Amino acid sequence: MPNVGEAQGRISGRIIIEQLIRNVELGQFEMGYSILVPCIFSLYLHPDDYARLSGVLDLIREDARKALAGRLEQLNAKPPSSPGLGSLGLGSLGLGALRGSKDRKLYKIACKDFAFEFFPDSEGAVPLGDVEIHSELNETPQPGYHGTKTTLLDREPSVGVATGLAGARTETRQSVNTIGNPAGDRVYAEIHYEDDSGPQLYLMRQNEISVGRGGDGAQVSLALYTNDEVSREHLRVRRDAAQKRFVIVDKSMNGTWLNGKRLARGVEETLPPKAQISVAEVITLQFEARP
Fold it and tell me: What is the pTM of this model?
């Protein structure tokens, strides 16, 4: 990996593609008979680097697709009979790469093709010369089923959560659904929490939101990346504009607690302007209404 002195201010297409390959290797998802690798990538660059490379981003995308397709072929090739996997960049693939061809799992993608979107970092989180990559295993990110976040320089990824190719990225996980709030610009409340993907901030812009793991047809506004103790649709929060209050209702199997008190399932309760919501005693949501 290039050191800071080599990389700073000198990010190139070659380095970006190398980092995409690294992200693919780190973001694998093993299943019974195959291993998925990330196929959707959101890449964040320092604004100066983004401006400098903007004219060749389409070419970088084209070369990146070829490079990742080649890596897939390499991963699925029969391992060499002699040692030295490290020289091929395969040393980090684990024991699966050392099995006989009969037992080896197939590496594949869940998308039709690799997809890439570049964004200038607007939060001051990505240094000059760095690239921060957020990947997903499918076009529609699902809780507990996602790729990884990587950087070129030796730092923690810090530009928040990418929401696929929509580019709706701040340090928030926001719903694009603005039913009940067509303008989609006013924030009624904020919810701080930490799930398996790290600390998060969700901005409530609708009059009603659903919270849970999502998936299997359950569309939720706030998707929690966590275990199945949390229901696919676990709870709902509704803004009652007429009475100038918020209400919460539990819809789960394993319970929701409001400031330490378990809610009766299916019964609306008033949600205080500041409240602590325990989701199945797995994740705690810190709710705060905006004035």
Answer: 0.51
